[in-house]
């Protein structure tokens, strides 16, 4: 296959010189060029129509869940099919999201003890059944690691299982 090549053509620039053959004197030619440069032709301006704005609907008020944490737990357990349900992730969802550089609220000892009491009350009233009474270890101290550091049980360290009451 051969490629066809083309040579670029040279464009010669011609200079206009004021010669005797020119019919106009140099001054009039310069003035004519200046007049042409001064005239600027602008394109016609077209005004765009403003788009019709739809009215912004008023924000609907969000309905806060008026149920207590106890009722939310009972509804969660009852909404699941028969059998044992792990509560840890659901219990964590009852708390606000973790903010930057601060521990989760559910990891505090006071919250662990509050959860322990709440789950014990639900168990005692017969609304749900806690499997193996694992909630009773919430808030209790334990020692972990090689240096035996002291810590308290919370819902991140204790697995809590529940089922519907019979």
Radius of gyration, taken over Cα atoms and rounded to an integer in Å: 42 Å
Number of helices: 4
Number of E-type strands: 5
Which strands sit side by side, in order, in the main sheet? Answer: 1-5-2
**Main pleated-sheet profile:** 3 strands, antiparallel
Low-confidence stretches: 12-20
What structural category characterises the helix and strand content? Answer: alpha+beta
Share in β-strands: 5-15%
Q: State the order of secondary-structure elements, H for helix, E for strand.
A: HHEHHEEEE
Helical fraction? 25-40%
Query: What best-fitting shape do the alpha-carbon axes yield?
Result: elongated
Termini gap: 89 Å
Average per-residue pLDDT, rounded, comes to 77
Your description of this structure?
With 166 residues, this protein is an alpha+beta fold. It contains four helices and five strands. It has a domain at 69-164. It has helices spanning 26-38, 69-79, 88-93, 109-125; strands at 85-86, 128-130, 141-144, 149-152, 161-164. A three-stranded antiparallel beta sheet has the order 1-5-2. A two-stranded antiparallel sheet has the order 3-4. It is elongated and about 110 Å long. Residues 12-20 have low confidence and may be disordered.
